């Protein structure tokens, strides 16, 4: 090997022997234009994944499990669909449509075997915020006058006009347009392979956002639980204004809905949390307490005449049969364009994360890009049938998995049960109190609100994650859902940049008998070399942290080249001044003065520190343990930009001026390619080693050669080096 240290492997030599030539990959255009039978077949199978699933379907065992599971999920989808439709400011029957039409389409295009597609609390709330944009100013502000003009026992569907002055037909048209456009956005994202976009939404961000949304959802249901008529608030600070209106009208509370809601909440909580959850291992199928509460509430309301006697607001007329297909109106798209993007991303993020969890538990994989297409096509198709955007239901998916469902065949049976309700049984639930549906929603979001209890654990794990959680939660809750997601993402990106900026290099020492280098503060039996500094860095080197990286290397090396140059320059100037003053004295005094100046004991020895300059007594500056090498471990550096390359070049040059060599080790191929392009490899190829061990051994060998040559006892005077440098 051409290197003077034959045993130390340098990266350039290693690459010359083992590195392959860069493979000639086909261009994107060539790959797109290359068609064959196999590629067409794979494309069709990827587009319609149900074929692969059904090809391995075990009809004797899987069919019975899917039937039982599908009926169970359908029983749950019926009440939750009506409840979340009410959350979206739409007639309850629309929730039944969302629990039916998208499910049929997802069966053909979806890759998840356990996701139950339908209504979701987050999507319902976002759709409701869109509806609030179209409420009349009079209805939104003059809440008192509106409460006087509308009787407390008015139903929602009978009059065709909601308490906000907007007809149900108009709101359904907005919901259809929203579903269509959300579907188009998701299809475009899927075709462009943007399924990775959810990776930028960290778990703390999603947890803080969903908890804030749960606060919004719970707040929006208070009026139903207390029997109050409140104006729907839109814009920023919704939660604050809603609670303001609640306290202003609390004296008008109807105690009949309060009692009904309390009973329903207690029953739902006891069965779901204390029975279904506690005895989950013993129960093959969880008790469908939601449908039990809905049936009992409807029966009690019908025979007790809650609507007539106690002014309890009920669901009202539920039209039988499927809606007539119609084209979305696209009215006022400019008003809610931002919500289209937000709903498309949020609904997909919730659904695909749920699908990934289910797939991991059951040992199969899901394609996030195909999932985007599946949700998009489902939304576009269902938009022609009076539906609002769909998503995977957390409770429904959990039941579909725990009940033993094998494939999406179970969703066909759940859709069949919902279809029966739409066609035949819908009219039986006209007396269902709205407060019962609100109780179902409140209990369903309980787990989201309880995420607040995880904050202490998040704080102990990562302060940054805790701040992301809190910022997202507070903005979502106090300001607005849209701003919460936007500012949460921006703050999350800011913390990533901040982590790379404040990340500091660490001093590494060799662990005895292991051949590895670790921080001696945390490891025992480490050996620190007196003249060789090994520095590790586990962050990118780029424009935002280049200056900090340089200053930290100076700190760990205990020698700052520029400071050392300035010190010696001042010492030289002081020496010249001293010499001039000595020249004015008599020759005897001058000789004595120079003799005292050149005495051996006048040499200052410092251990990596700078002495205070005395203009009257200037001594040569030497180091008791001279620093000879700095080895940078770049194994943890993910990327380097042009500024980072300049930083590396400057470090090597500056330390070379003070007779200190800067070497690099563990340079990845990506970093190597950047170094080649920016002329670091051609200029400093002998300073780049394959591993830290190679660089350390080469440095030790070089220091050892100095000892063998008898130079170790010589005083190493840095001033002689520096005076030759152009300062």
From TrEMBL:
Any Gene Ontology biological process: transmembrane transport
Gene3D superfamilies for this protein: STAS domain
Pfam families noted in UniProt: STAS, Sulfate_transp
Main location: membrane
Membrane protein topology class: Multi-pass membrane protein
Subcellular location: Membrane
Keyword annotations from UniProtKB, A to Z: Membrane, Transmembrane, Transmembrane helix
InterPro entries in alphabetical order: SLC26A/SulP_dom (IPR011547), SLC26A/SulP_fam (IPR001902), STAS_dom (IPR002645), STAS_dom_sf (IPR036513)
Domain STAS: 522-699
GO cellular component, one term: membrane
Protein name: STAS domain-containing protein
